Amino acid sequence: MKPWHGTLLFLIGLALGTVLVAIGPRVAGPYLPAALRGEVESVEGEVTRKLREPDRLLLTVVTPRGAILATFKTRIPEVDLLVAEGDALTLGLRRFEPFVEDPAIESVRKKTPTESPKTGAAGRTP
User: Fold this and answer.
1) Full domain range(s) for residue 93
2) 6 domain-assigned
3) Which of 9, 35, 88, 120 could form a disulfide with 109 if both were Cys (CB 3.0 to 4.6 A apart)?
4) Which residue has the higher pLDDT, 79 or 117?
5) Is the pLDDT of residue 116 over 50?
6) What CATH number is given to the structural domain containing 73?
7) Structural domain tally of the chain?
8) Can you give the pLDDT at residue 39?
């Protein structure tokens, strides 16, 4: 019984280690300090398209290095209210990739509305 006990314990440890390496960063990542999470690259671009689906939000961000399709599956209503087409968006990414899921939003700069011509007190222009 002793050899089977040791083999079983080894296989359970191997399976647990593999699962933690695959899932651990996603689960524990938000709670770790930035130094332990790894380097984050700031990528800035303009939101050219936004598509809201029932279970996700898709943003197309055009950057000088290329386009990024950012898929948000968590905090969908908050991101939908915060970001609009034409806004300048800064994303925190581990590396530049064309497809990213739930990237960290570092900043959003709203597009400036076009200035309308000034009107007089009666609403007419002279």
Assistant:
1) 40-109
2) no
3) 88
4) 79
5) no
6) 2.40.50.140
7) 1
8) 73
In a domain, 7, yes or no: no
DSSP annotation string for 36-102: HH---EEEEEEEEEEEE-SS-EEEEEEETTEEEEEEE-SSHHHHHHH--TT-EEEEEESS--SEEES
Determine the straight-line distance between the first and last CA of the chain, rounded to whole angstroms: 99
44 is a domain residue: yes
The pTM score is: 0.61
At 115, the amino acid letter reads E
Residue 70 above 90 pLDDT?
yes
Cα separation, 80 vs 2, whole angstroms: 58
Tally of CB atoms within 10 A around 20: 12
98 in a structural domain:
yes
In contact, 92 and 68? CB cutoff 8 Å = no
pLDDT score of 122: 53
pLDDT value at residue 32: 73
